[in-house]
Description:
Radius of gyration: 31 Å
Number of strands: 14
Largest sheet: 5 strands, parallel
Helix content: 40-55%
Strand order of the largest sheet: 2-1-3-6-7
Amino acid sequence: MSNAALLVEDNSSHAELIADELETALPGWTLDRAPTLADARRRMAGRAYELFVFDFRLPDGDGIELLREVRAQGVTTPTIFVTTASSAKLAVDAMKLGADDYIVKEEGYLAVLPYLVQEVLKRHRLAHERQQLEDRLQRAERAATLGYLASGLAHHINNPLATIRTFLQLLPTNIDDPEFRTKYLEMALAESERIRDLVKDIMRAATVPQHGHEVQRLESILDRAEEGVGGAMQAKGIVCRRTLPPSLPAVEAHGEAATCLFLTLLQNAVRFAPDGSTIDIDARVDHEAGRLVTTVRDHGPGIPSEHREKIFEPFFTTAVDGLGMGLFVASRIADLQDIELTLEDAPPGGGAAFRVGLKLAAAPARARAEAQPAA
């Protein structure tokens, strides 16, 4: 079936003139005409079109109404409005609704119309090609990530399995040896827990929800995150020290995902912080960026410059018993939740500092959330 354009114009003289120009600009296309909204709706119900040309003033409505209906149905067909000089403001309204361009019925407009049509169609074609390229790039990136994850999983699962397999192979001949049973059983259990933790991290990375629109308070997010790492902090005598300004504005985020992100940062900080040290959490409002910016800092050895580009990659770790999935999961959450997550420059006095930028909630939602007591 050939491409088709729909001209919606009630003035028969204008319709003839515009149709002549469209037929010249679109050789081989089918051109349908509709003098009213009702006729236009009937024609649109019967076939798909590759171009719309709408007039504003119609006997039973206007082109704005028709465009609103079309876009509400998810139809992205290129659309041009033809209007009189007195309706120029309506043309701006049409552009806001998704029209691609407009032309004013004034001297010489028919000579310009074919060029405008070709330009609009070209823009749509280039946008479609760009979207296709972006989709292909995303698929290639997902495939590359999947391959990288598969390779890392194979390594991190095979090594623990080798320990467990060795224990099971030697167990029949050493079952009466209590030292062997105790030593290897502890090792096998520890390795099975590593596999379990790895699977949990993979699932966390794979099941991150899309951007959430919940209204949250930073204090509540931090409370939940600290609770999750409280046992580890107590074991090392580490204290979390917050420096938060009064009356912090509410933020827009998925509560569980944001908590998981801060929990990951705190777990990382506890792992590398010296016994008896502090983890510092500071916050400030960046009104220009519309973000509540929080910094989580430990006082450990810091991150060497040669590792800074790799810390958010899966399976990268400098910890002896680490899996290298925590910061990868945190970066996945940030990407999908419209959260800014960056590693800050090495702070004075050493340690590592991560910056988290949470989007401020809309003003009415902030007012409602801030009227509630902190959880």
